[in-house]
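It is worth pausing here to work through a concrete case rather than discussing structure prediction in the abstract. The textbook approach is simple: state the sequence, then state the predicted structure, then interpret. We follow exactly that order.
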Amino acid sequence: DGAKSLTFNSDKKLGGEFTGGAALTKKGTGNLTLNAANPEWTGSIYLQAGTLTASGNTSFGMGDIYASGGTINLASKAIDNDIYVTDKGVVSIIGGKKYTGNIDVDGSLATKTSICLAEGSSLTLRSGKHSATVSGKGTLRVQDGNVTLQTGKYTMSELEIDSKLIVQTIPPALPKSDSHIRINEGGSLTSAGKIR
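Step two, the predicted structure:
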């Protein structure tokens, strides 16, 4: 049940099942694929570099994922682990076609990020410059700091703004007219182009 720290500078697949509450820290430039189903594993995962890949819906266990760098590959699985981008890190989240958890970003989402948020899911951006593609029936929340959408597309069902949001994409990559956009007290929206 102790914490495990793994450093891989080349690709590695782990097929063993994890149980208990031990944390896993992924370091190094390689791709670590968790191959086993881990429904009894409640420990957190800490991604510092490289790529972390799921091969099944419970490969990442039941704990939260904290990423300060690297890429999280959800591999189009129905993953619901909450993801936190920490330490002002730059992180990519790919393969998120069936994502049902919540993502909280105090850093930046990198260019190759692509996530489809299920209904009830949310993406909270607290700071940083983002270049992601986010779609689905979930909610995008802008809170706490200045947030800039540099490139990408953001077409989810709801947008809630509590701080400063700057949209640099042309045309603005914001929710369509049938979406709900709410600018709360203290919030602002600045766009480089016309919002339709």
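Step three, interpretation. Residues 7 and 16 are 17 Å apart (CA to CA). The first strand starts at residue 4 and ends at 7.
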